[in-house]
Design a protein that fits this description.
heterodimer; A: 496 residues; mainly alpha; 2 strands; B: 318 residues; alpha/beta; D-Maltodextrin-Binding Protein, domain 2; five-stranded mixed β-sheet; 11 strands; 42% helix; globular
Chain lengths: 496, 318
Amino acid sequence: MLLAFSNLLAFWPLTYLALGVALGIIVGSIPGLTASMLIALSLPLTFYMSSVDAMTLLIGMYVGGISGGLIAATLLRMPGTPASIMTTFDGFPMAQQGKGERALALGIAASIIGGLISWVFLAVLSPPLANLALRFGPWEYFTMVLMALVMLASLSQGSLVKGLIAACLGMLLAMPGIDPSIGQLRLTFGWDKLTGGLALLPVLIGTFAISQILKDVIAIDQRLAQVQVMRRAVAIKARDLVTHGPNLLRSSVIGTWVGLLPGIGGNIAAMLAYATAKSVSKEPEKFGKGHEAGVVAAETANNASIGGALIPLITMGIPGSVVEAILIGALIIHNLQPGPLLFVTNPEIAYGVIASYLVANIFMALMMLAAVGWISRLMYLPRAYLLTAILFFCVIGTFALNNRFFDVWVMLAFGVVGFALEYCKVPLGPFVIGFVLAPIAEEQLRAGMMSSEGDFLALFGRPFAATFFVISILTLCWPLYQEWRQRRRASAEVTT
Amino acid sequence: MNKLLLGSLLAGAALALGAMPAPAEAFPDKPIRVIVGFAPGGRTDTVARLLAAKIEEKGLLPQPLVIVNMPGGGGAVGAQEVLDAEPDGHTIIHWHHQLLIAKAMEIIEAGPDDFTSIGFAGGGSPVWSVRGDLGLDTLDDVVQKLKAEPGSLVEVIGIGTIPHFVGALLAKEAGFETRKVQAASGSDRLKMIAGGNADISLFAASEYEGWKTAGQGLEAVVFFGPNRIDNLPDVPTATELGYDVVWANPNWWLAPTGTPQENIDILAAALEEAFQDEEIKAWFAENALDHYWTPGPQAHEESVELLGRLQEVAAEIR
């Protein structure tokens, strides 16, 4: 391990790492452009680098890309990357209340702390954690996602019914494409463009960024007064660490754990951490209205998920996300087969990944602190320029995702959908959460049913799954019980 | 090859003459888009990128090959893009036998007849692997257990993908039945086995080599290639064990039907020459892939024949 650090302290690996982090932050902070796109574009370049250099570059981009997303999410309510959707829920309201700086400071602090805590897990506990994570089968995935769905169901402010409508609509729109359990097309209405379903990025960018652009364009004259310049340093006080300590720790653990589970990534880590923070909070009603704990939970967890996701990558050769599949591809091109043998055959790579992740996090925090004032000033450029530029990047990014223009039309259509939903006071949060979580819940539930030959009760034979399921049921029933108790108390008061 | 030489001579002459415009039919006159129907990082993507880089390095074509990833529907999204493109050879696809499976499952309407095969640039065969702690060391053990207690082992597959079909072909030949669970990708299947949530799955030979010590370990019981390979010398082929199941999944280069034959020939010549390079050969050996070149017409014929067999299987498993 020490050797890996000393290898890393050479000129080129550090340069590539810094370059990767910087590019990642830039790309991450632009709505529409994501870390996975940047990494896919850089893949051909890595052919010509040594494997250590290639790896440091890609890990730097990964860390930078996820972290950069918080700036646009906070200041513009446009998630810079899918992993920062949850940050929009409280970060943007904070910015509207004039606490944008504070939200950014918290977000950066949360990012680095999440990164560092997950690094400790990565460095110390990789093999046992990877083995534990693998024990998670379809039932555990299903119940965990179900738990997140139930906890977030009440996220909508205002009408619960409208929130549920939004969630169902989101779930429904995730259905077209190839049915995972029978391999047949469904809900494509014979339209072959829909064979691959609706991709996450265009839907997300459409509903959040494009709809926000539409809103801002309509209000382009009124909103100029809101411009604020960030002068004070973005600082975080020791007191904040105490106030948010439990949240930071909990969200780091949740983020690392979700990252560990292959197939689900930073956005789901943030959703679960946010949901948990809200459930254990003494003031859950504040979430979604500019509550600091919401920003902290989301940003801690999405960064922690990277460290978590690197664990199965280096111990088993299992990619947890698209980014990591590309990382593995980069290794394979260099004739390195990721897997349990990597520590034996190429320890400089295996330990190098661990070391680079730590250094990347430190670089990320330094660069974000240095650049955040500057980047946020960019966000307060005259809106006519800013919105045009963002729209331009959204179109490019969405096109580059799968190299097809269909996705751009999807994005624009969802921009209108998002705008219309907000106009009708239907919240966007549950819509997007339904869209992200429903496919995983469905696939895993059906896989679980296949393995138990259609017996749903098999769920109770598995301790983790059963626990998650019971928590879901309790979360669902708790408000009803409270209401019932209040009503009984009220009626008791009347009779006495 | 001659045509290529002639082409480059002509191009050289044109350069020498300075102002002389290039002949309109000179192919390729713009970068060639190679559609890969998967996200970057997998075998199909990597092989395409390696060959594209080799073609550029050796100057085999006057224009570069640009790899365009269009994931979705197991490659169906990318295929649609190719079929919608101008059939002039500037848009081609690098795919594999998932095309036949998608056709057999009726996910796409297009089949091998809607494409012109440029050729197979080698390919790879998978192994059927059993979880290490089950004590089932040979295919015979597995078959006997499944015959005694049908459905007693969980086979993890992607429904309507290669692992599903190869498993079904073997099950049909050997007369057994597994319990099936679905998982999206190779690493998801590994996850299920390494975590003890499934017992059997199909892996590419190179995947198996990297993953054989994960979790409880993996035991390869049968290899589906036409013959044993050096990377897995101890794993018998299905044919050796008396089951007529061979699955060699090629790196299949295709152009949309209607592409002029001379352009196909130019592409085939460049790809084949890049493919025969020693570095590429070494990479194939290292990654447990077979290194052979099958010319277009033969590739087409083999694929059509295989499709017939897959359609029979599809009728049973759909």
